[in-house]
């Protein structure tokens, strides 16, 4: 176990790293030269320890003298040299075997190319090195390989020296002038197509932009290039940050554990977030590419130029960069819809994490396996913490704080505290209490109530907060919560009130104690509070608003997020009521008010189709599991499915004419264009198709017609995913035709796997097992595993949560297989079991048994052992 309290700086300084990497047919030889000096305040004569795993030693020399085996010790963690001088040059020569590396960490083979993934601790599988983020050095890297097999030789920095060598080999030297930690090292070697463009920075630098793909995908990187140029321009415009090398490269690979990696100047991407064209990618794919391309580019400053002192500070770079990519996407697309989507993701992924066995602060105090802490808490909640600082100090002070942060810490490894101090110094605001967000886990619960003094025309708003206990933390202190607020009268007009001597129609309230009452003057009777506008703090908000108040906010609130939120609360209340009736065996009825509210939104959808589509989208069954868990109601999957289906069917039938009209009115004639307006129209049209597919007599016929008439992948997948639920011979014909058409496109085949894994047909688990034998599937490829096994286990609750435990046994079997091949992917899969204690019997006991079966496996990896151990408690 690693603890934040045990952190101490390394005993040595590393000024320069030189590497000579020789690629052969079945192995790679890595020669590394390090110039080191002992720090003056370090322990006298402490031995030198360098991380290193799965390395075959060929040579070790110190200042040119070959060391004997008695002078060093190699174990499973690394290399210890017992006696080193105060200043010295260390040379190591090792052999590694990328073709055998199925964990996809370090240097590994991905199809015809070799590539790296070094974050968090992969560099130690390449050479002996101080593999920790606070050790930074300049790198000079020479790569040598067969020219025909590996014409492209890429690494960080600027290309320097290129040579043709004897025997059909060649070499290329890369030099990175910016000191960096080893986790940012990257190397790619392969026969790749390259799309090139240029970008002229605001500081006058002419940058060569290069996106590398496999040759068959050369025509799919145009959108990624446009996204990159947008991101570079936006970062200059909004944050004044320009790129700093002569070359910026992106490489797309099908074999990658993560979404992408921000290695300095050479970003390595999962191909899912690079490759797109209208007949193979959906609107969601295009949006994802734009966002992730931007995210990794923004890391050039928030993560690379300023990096983290230790891995406990991970949210310093990830939370901040997620906030930046959210702001970018908001400016490129729809700000209100982006906010809703981000909050839905936060509630679906991070809130359950906060309420479960893996709960941890955004700066954790301890970890067993670092790869397990690339979590929604670190990323998504981390971004919300940055957003709260932005809200509290204001956009101008936030920009000044960012400028100060870079001025102070450029080229350094720092802490979350350093960032907060820069914000305090730039704004003059004391954020000492706010720092609790970095050290306390859990999602605060805020209770809101109002009281009107009619005689004095004063409205009292009382906010009270609770921070629940989480594993290892109890008796929490009150958090600092920015609460954006407004009030609406019975006509839906925003009220003009006075608060602390300032008159206005919108207010920022800071709740810093356990309970506080805020006083508003000039109030009239019947005011409805609109609280937590724009979701100004990541909390659970509990109010005593009646359904009529929520209906008013749904129709009239000037904050789009709170319009959506009002609708979501109405739906959730309805579903909770229906579930109670279902359990008590009472007849189910759809509230007339909900049907009316939905109909009103649908009739006016043309005013803002993107927002209307979000409001009219139902909570998923998994979201309802989280709702029940928050209400301390044991989850019964069949009950949730039946009640949600009842509501879906009634809304589909009750608004049939409006859904049909929407399907026709939101068509997008002409060629596919990825732009916000068309994306919104397609979203509304395909949402209408979803509702119409519920109609018993015409649903499948309409879905089939939509599939045949689809002219882009967005529409084709919308129809195919709906068709997959039907038990009809025509479905098999659709799926077979789809696979024949796209069998050579790996990403499209992932969609094909996923559609079948998410099918509600009773035989879906049997079909998933059959598809594991399909030629396009491989357990060694994370994208395939996520598309088929991951989609079934985490995205198909009805078929995964079978009473007989067959779904759980399947997942346990897959996790134990992945434990050998790729523990990182396995640990993410097994986390599906984390909320097992929130389920009713027999599901609860069946999941516990599956966890114990995994836990009993001998030599279980630390990645999976940690998640399973914490789940079992």
What's this model, at a glance?
The chain has 873 residues and is α+β, with helices and mostly antiparallel strands. The two termini are 16 Å apart.
Question: Overview of this structure, please?
Answer:
The structure is a single chain. By secondary structure, this protein is of the alpha+beta class. Among the domains are: 1-191, Immunoglobulin-like (Sandwich); 306-439, Neutral Protease, domain 2 (Orthogonal Bundle), CATH 1.10.390; 445-544, Sandwich (Immunoglobulin-like), CATH 2.60.40.1840. Helix content is 40%, strand content 22%. The chain contains 27 helices and 33 strands. The strands form nine sheets. Strands 6-5-9-3-2-12-15-14 form an eight-stranded mixed β-sheet, with no helix packed on it. α24 packs parallel to α26 (843-855). The protein is globular and about 90 Å long. The relative contact order is 0.06.
Jot down its keywords.
Immunoglobulin-like; 873 residues; alpha+beta; globular; 40% helix; Neutral Protease, domain 2; 33 strands
Secondary structure layout:
Elements: E1 2-3, E2 12-23, E3 28-38, E4 48-51, E5 56-62, E6 65-66, E7 72-74, E8 78-81, E9 87-96, E10 106-110, E11 113-117, E12 137-146, E13 152-155, E14 158-164, E15 169-180, E16 187-190, E17 193-200, E18 206-213, H1 222-239, E19 247-253, E20 260-261, E21 266-270, H2 283-298, E22 306-308, H3 314-332, H4 335-354, E23 366-367, H5 376-393, H6 395-409, E24 412-414, H7 416-427, H8 436-439, E25 445-453, E26 458-466, E27 481-488, E28 497-499, E29 502-504, E30 507-511, E31 515-521, E32 528-531, E33 540-542, H9 547-556, H10 560-583, H11 592-603, H12 609-615, H13 621-630, H14 637-654, H15 656-665, H16 676-692, H17 699-709, H18 713-723, H19 729-742, H20 746-757, H21 764-771, H22 782-795, H23 797-800, H24 806-821, H25 823-830, H26 843-855, H27 862-872
Parallel strand pairs: 2-12, 18-19, 19-21, 22-24, 25-33
Antiparallel strand pairs: 1-23, 2-3, 3-9, 4-8, 5-6, 5-9, 7-8, 10-11, 11-16, 12-15, 13-16, 14-15, 17-18, 20-21, 25-26, 26-31, 27-30, 27-32, 28-29
Helix pairs in contact: 1-2, 2-3, 3-4, 3-5, 4-5, 5-6, 6-7, 9-10, 9-11, 10-14, 12-16, 15-16, 16-18, 17-18, 19-20, 20-22, 24-25, 24-26, 25-27, 26-27
Domain Peptidase M1 alanyl aminopeptidase C-terminal: 547-872
Keywords: Aminopeptidase, Hydrolase, Metal-binding, Metalloprotease, Protease, Zinc
InterPro entries: Aminopeptidase_N-like_N, Aminopeptidase_N-like_N_sf, PepN_Ig-like_sf, Peptidase_M1, Peptidase_M1_dom, Peptidase_M1_pepN, Peptidase_M1_pepN_C, Peptidase_M1_pepN_C_sf
């Amino acid at each position: 176990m690693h603890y934040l309290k045990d952190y101490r700086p390394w005993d040595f300084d590393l000024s320069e790293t030189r590497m000579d990497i020789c690629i052969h047919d079945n192995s790679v030889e890595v020669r590394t030269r390090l110039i080191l000096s002992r720090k003056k305040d370090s322990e006298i004569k402490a031995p030198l320890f360098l991380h290193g795993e799965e390395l075959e030693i060929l040579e070790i020399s110190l200042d040119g003298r070959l060391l004997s085996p008695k002078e060093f010790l190699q174990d499973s963690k690394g290399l210890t040299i017992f006696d080193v001088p105060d200043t010295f040059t260390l040379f190591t020569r090792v052999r590694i075997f990328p073709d055998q590396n199925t964990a996809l960490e370090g240097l590994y083979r991905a199809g015809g190319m070799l590539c790296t993934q070094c974050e968090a601790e992969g560099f130690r599988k390449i050479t002996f090195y101080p593999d920790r983020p606070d050790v930074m050095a300049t790198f000079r890297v020479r790569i040598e390989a067969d020219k025909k097999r590996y014409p492209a030789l890429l690494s960080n920095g600027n290309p320097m020296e290129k040579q043709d060598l004897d025997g059909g080999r060649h070499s290329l030297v890369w030099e990175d002038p910016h000191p960096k930690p080893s986790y940012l090292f990257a190397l790619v070697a392969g026969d790749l197509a390259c799309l090139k463009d240029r970008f002229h920075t605001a500081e006058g630098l002419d940058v060569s932009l290069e996106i590398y793909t496999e040759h068959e995908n050369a025509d799919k990187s145009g959108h990624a290039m446009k996204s990159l140029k947008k991101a570079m321009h936006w970062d200059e415009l909004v944050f004044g940050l320009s790129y700093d090398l002569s070359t910026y490269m992106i490489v797309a690979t099908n074999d990658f554990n993560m979404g992408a990696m921000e290695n300095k100047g050479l970003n390595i991407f999962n191909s899912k977030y690079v490759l797109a064209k209208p007949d193979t990618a959906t609107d969601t794919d295009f949006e994802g590419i734009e966002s992730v391309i931007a995210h990794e580019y923004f890391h050039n400053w928030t993560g690379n130029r300023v990096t983290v002192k230790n891995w406990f500070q991970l949210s310093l770079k990830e939370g901040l960069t997620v906030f930046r990519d959210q702001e970018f996407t908001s400016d490129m697309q729809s700000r209100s819809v982006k906010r809703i989507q981000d909050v839905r993701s936060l509630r679906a992924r991070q809130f359950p994490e906060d309420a479960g066995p893996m709960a941890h602060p955004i700066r954790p105090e301890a970890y067993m396996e670092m790869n397990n802490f690339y979590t929604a808490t670190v990323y998504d909640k981390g971004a919300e913490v940055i957003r709260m600082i932005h809200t509290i100090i204001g956009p101008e002070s936030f920009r000044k704080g960012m400028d100060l942060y870079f001025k102070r810490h450029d080229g350094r490894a720092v802490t979350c505290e350093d960032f907060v101090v820069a914000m305090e110094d730039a704004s003059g605001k004391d954020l000492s209490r706010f720092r609790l967000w970095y050290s306390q886990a859990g999602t605060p619960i805020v209770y809101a109530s109002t009281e009107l003094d009619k005689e004095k025309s004063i409205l009292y708003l009382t906010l009270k907060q609770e921070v629940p206990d989480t594993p290892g933390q109890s008796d929490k202190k009150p958090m600092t919560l920015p609460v954006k607020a407004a009030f609406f009268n019975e006509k839906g007009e925003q009220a003009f009130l006075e608060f602390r001597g300032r008159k206005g129609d919108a207010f920022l309230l800071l709740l810093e104690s356990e309970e506080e009452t805020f006083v508003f003057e000039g109030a009239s009777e019947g005011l409805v509070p609109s609280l937590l506008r724009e979701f100004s703090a990541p909390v659970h908000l509990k109010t005593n608003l009646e359904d009529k108040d929520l209906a008013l906010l749904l129709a009239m609130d000037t904050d789009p997020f709170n319009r959506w939120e009002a609708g979501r609360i109405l739906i959730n209340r309805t579903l909770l009521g229906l579930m109670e009736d279902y359990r008590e065996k009472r007849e189910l009825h759809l509230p007339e008010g909900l049907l009316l509210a939905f109909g009103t939104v649908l009739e006016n959808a043309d005013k803002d189709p993107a927002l209307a589509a979000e409001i009219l989208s139902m909570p998923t069954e998994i979201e309802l599991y989280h709702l029940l868990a928050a209400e301390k109601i044991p989850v019964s999957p069949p009950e949730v499915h039946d009640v949600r289906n009842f509501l879906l069917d009634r809304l589909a039938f009750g608004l049939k004419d409006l859904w049909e009209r929407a399907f026709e009115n939101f068509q997008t004639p002409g060629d596919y264009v990825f732009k916000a307006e068309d994306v919104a129209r397609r979203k509304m049209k395909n949402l209408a198709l979803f509702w119409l597919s519920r109609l018993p007599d015409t649903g499948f016929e309409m879905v089939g017609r939509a599939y045949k008439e689809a002219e882009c992948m967005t529409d084709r997948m919308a129809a195919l995913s709906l068709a997959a639920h039907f038990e009809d011979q025509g479905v098999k014909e659709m799926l077979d035709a789809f696979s024949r058409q796209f069998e050579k496109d790996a990403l499209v085949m992932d969609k094909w796997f996923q559609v079948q894994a998410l099918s509600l047909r009773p035989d879906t688990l049997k079909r998933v097992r059959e598809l594991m034998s399909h030629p396009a599937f491989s357990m060694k490829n994370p994208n395939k595993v996520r598309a088929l096994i991951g989609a079934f286990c985490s995205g198909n609750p009805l078929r995964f949560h079978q009473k007989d435990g067959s779904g759980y046994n399947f997942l346990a079997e897959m996790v134990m297989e992945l434990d050998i091949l790729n523990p990182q992917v396995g640990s993410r899969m097994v986390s599906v079991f984390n909320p097992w204690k929130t389920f009713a019997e027999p599901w609860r006991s069946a999941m516990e048994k599956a966890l114990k079966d995994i836990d009993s496996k001998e030599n279980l990896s630390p990645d999976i052992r940690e998640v399973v151990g914490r789940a079992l408690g």
